[in-house]
Amino acid sequence: MSSLNGEPSFAAFVSQLTLREKVSLLSGNSFNTTPGVERLGIPRIKVADSINGIRPSSLKDDMTTASFPSTTCLGSTWDKELLHRMGERLAHQARLKSAQVVLGPTINIHRDPRAGRNFECFSEDPLLSGQLAAAIVNGLQKQGVGACPKHFVCNDSETMRHFYNVAESPNCRGLREIYLAAWQHMLRESDPVAVMTAYNKVDGTFCSENGTLITDILRRTWGYRGVTMSDWFATRSTAASIKAGLDLEMPFPILRGAKLVQEVESRAVTVAELDQRVLKMLELRDRTKDCHSDEPERSEISDETNAIARELVASGMVLLKNVAETLPLEPSQQLKVAVIGEFANDPVVTGGGSASCKPQYKQKPLDFLQEAFSKHGTVQYAPGVRTRRIIPVAPTAQLTAADGRQGVDVSYFNDDNPSQPILTEFQPVPHVSMLGQHEFKPSLHVPGSRLELTTTLTPSTTGTHTLAVRCTGAFTLSVNNSPILSRAIQPAITTEQFLFNHTLLETRHEKGLPMLAGTPYAIHLVVHSRTELMPHGEPTPYSATLCFEEEYSEETAIHTAAALAQSADVSLVFCGRSAQYESEGFDLEEMAMPANQTALIRAVAAVAKRTVLVLYCGNPIDVSPFVDEVEAVVLAHFPGQEGAAALVDVLTGRVNPSGRLATTWWVRLKEAPSFGAFPAAEGENGVEIRYEEGVRMGYRCEDLARRARWPFGFGLSYTTFRYGGLCLVVDEEAEPARLMCSVEVSNTGGREGREVVQLYVRPSKSQSAWRPERELKSFAKVQLQPGEKKVVKLQVDLKVACSYWDEAALTWRLEEGTYGVQVGSCQQEFNVMKTRAWNHL
């Protein structure tokens, strides 16, 4: 047996390992590495987040990386071939960061439009999620870099994700037909080297030690042969996780290491059980190429990578509304274009959390629009309102340290010697962040210390300005030796909230502080360490950030934008959300647009000749307050570093939009099937979530036409398509039996375009169990020139197409009856689909 590299297999070394060497292989030894065994030449394994951009090893590293669009954008492409090519480029990026395994893709389901991490997941539909994920996995692993899809399973909410229980059986229809089905579809078409388990419980047991999920379903039923690893700090037991089939604890040996050695020596864990887990970790090394993980990480701008990133964005952007052919804008028409909104000049690139990254460059839509209309027409800009959940970090240019440099001085003190600093240092940015013992300053006591930040702040304008502090402990902020802001107790936060939900750390001077332009103000911030270490072995945070924002008038900003719009032929309004709103670590509280953005949109639309709204978001937005007042709406998602170029390509017609929604946009929040059962809440048995809607989630719900603003699969084009010649054949001689479908698709408009052909199956009316009105079973994307016609062929396993999960018999059941097929698109309405049926006996 040999490895992927043609060398002897590492799996053959199990018998040569000592007990402690075996145990060492079953836990990480840093946030992104697992140890090797030097005496046997067994290399370590390095992992890296994520498919939206391969991040460097250190959380503090400013190294850039190629930034791809968010996974909601990838889902909206409906393009497996393109995502396979993306996977190949991700492998190249992973090698630049010396990683053998990429942590992704994320295939949790869009159950609720408030879920904070939806932007890094594909869809509400399990088949679309699973097949697109498989395409990325195959592209990555074709190049010898492993993929680790996550999070298995039901981490569909961020609120209390370490603790909540999904109070449903793994054998209920909801889990089998929706949440587990996404993984099953992925595993039918790919074989990832690893799978990451979720933080939460399912049916009362944490996913990291849930033998029903890991051993019974994933391994025995589905035949999965790769590694299972915990999410970071998600392992909850020693022996139980080993027996359940969890191979790797990340990121450190908290519940393994010496504890696991003791469990083996006491025979609570058998050597055979241990060896099963060790074998998987050795096989992981056989299935991935050695990426020389000790080499320096680097960032390399690649034309090939950028071209795919741009194609992905253009293919995933969704044209949601386009009255009277407002779009595309023709630069040759000498238009006066008003560009409005801060995102036009400082665009959103990504959501927040482990799927975020620092792009190699940041394009501005404003620059590309000015270039597009430079020969014909004019482009003018108004920034509009500011939209943010937190106050920005005080700008370095307005700060002066004691020695005259731009920045701050920071001193560290231990409580047992409070007058003598153990260290004093200069920093250009008023931000100190330490996470865990390995990042604490040498000799600094935690608990039992404080830091002091001093600087001089000089405002550029006169006004009532806002000062704020974000920190992890009690603090006092003084201006000119007068305390103006303090907090006597530390915020009640978890480590992940420290990392992702910065609003919980922030305290503002709500009334504002009157300050004069050009006048220096002495700033002194004292922040104390937390009074105890974090539980569950998680690293303890210690941070302090000085925040500052000068006063501005929203009323004036909106008035200025409206005046610009009134004089223009067309107004482009850039709005939506950023990583401050959609992120790992917390969920949204509502679907609504930030109120000041709604006011801006309505003010512009009231006076503009034509209004085009560009939306940045990962989650659906309630557009009810303004959608009828604008002529066009373009969903840009979180588009990555090539987003601006691709967006202007779409706006000006250089690219015909071909994205189709991978998730339903509801008329209002209460129409979402999960409304009232999200997020997690305290119940009789602790913190829990119930999937009360069962399989009636997303587009599968009842009364969809009334409840949906724009349904799953919807998206407009600058051209038109026609379907005809639908042919259906059931091949029951094949193994397995298959549904074969062909349909003629014609481009009946005047522009080249790409159409997403969607195949849905309607259940038999004689079914013994309730079934959704229709379910996606296959899809394809086809490119057509004006007047061109192509025959598109689709096929699907008949059991996959027509069966449902029988909860009583614990099996997939295919009942005899007459099933319907819809093939077409949701470009206009559902009724454009062609319907046929056949009898299955």
Number of helices: 17
| CATH H-level superfamily title of the largest domain | Glycoside hydrolase, family 3, N-terminal domain
- Proportion of strand residues: 25-35%
What count of structural domains? 4
Show unreliable segments: 827-841
Helix content: 10-25%
Category from helices, strands and their pairing: alpha+beta
| CATH C-level of the largest domain | Alpha Beta
Mean pLDDT, rounded to whole units?
94
Q: Count of DSSP E strands?
A: 41
Describe the structure.
Helix content is 21%, strand content 25%. Helix 11 (365-372) crosses helix 15. The longest helix has 17 residues, at 80-96. Residues 827-841 have low confidence and may be disordered. It is of the alpha+beta class. It folds into 4 domains: 10-287, TIM Barrel, CATH 3.20.20.300; 303-389 and 554-679, Glycoside hydrolase family 3 C-terminal domain (Rossmann fold, 3-Layer(aba) Sandwich); 402-549, Jelly Rolls, CATH 2.60.120; 721-840, Immunoglobulin-like.
Key attributes of the depicted protein:
TIM Barrel, Rossmann fold, Jelly Rolls, 7-stranded antiparallel β-sheet, 6-stranded mixed β-sheet, 17 helices
Compose a concise summary of this entry:
This protein is of the alpha+beta class and about 850 residues long.
